[in-house]
């Protein structure tokens, strides 16, 4: 009986290590995507044009893909919040596709609502994953996203550019890099 308990613990430890490695790699990818996206948005964000519209819709779609990868990670937790994140990002992609037909302030309103709700979800996910390590940056990121979303909503009227979104994505990317690096370091220390 003791041997089956130890085998179970070993399996759990391997699942946790695998989940941590996969999460770390996902965070590195998310950092790279955020930085590239931010540069492209900074170059195209002065008006709503085909390039900026495509970039606006791609960002939440990428978030859906990242959440699906996260969800499929063995031992991924909390699954319900990951589903909520997927739904929010998908709704945001649709909302942005509609908002671009209007004007930049409407785009910022949709983005702001998403930043608030996604930030709350990110904060909750990071808190539940705290024991994995490297999550304090995700906790900060979720909180800052919520505040940034409120700022997008408050400053949307009269906005004539989307460049603030580049800064938002860059900061989020930096937090993903910090978390990935911390998870990497923690894995190296464990071996």
Mean pLDDT: 90
First CA to last CA: what distance?
Answer: 28 Å
What does the main sheet amount to? none
Total count of strands: 0
Following the backbone from N to C, one meets helices and strands in this order, namely: HHHHHH
Helix content range of the residues, please? Answer: over 70%
> How does the helix and strand content classify structurally?
mainly alpha
The percentage of residues in β strands lies in under 5%
Regions with little confidence, pLDDT below 50 for 5+ residues: 3-15
What does this structure look like?
The chain has one domain (2-190). The relative contact order is 0.16. It starts with a helix and ends with a helix. With 191 residues, it is an all-alpha fold. Helix 2 runs antiparallel to helix 3. The longest helix has 43 residues, at 2-44. Helices cover 83% and strands 0% of the residues. It has helices at 2-44, 50-71, 79-99, 104-128, 136-155, 163-190.
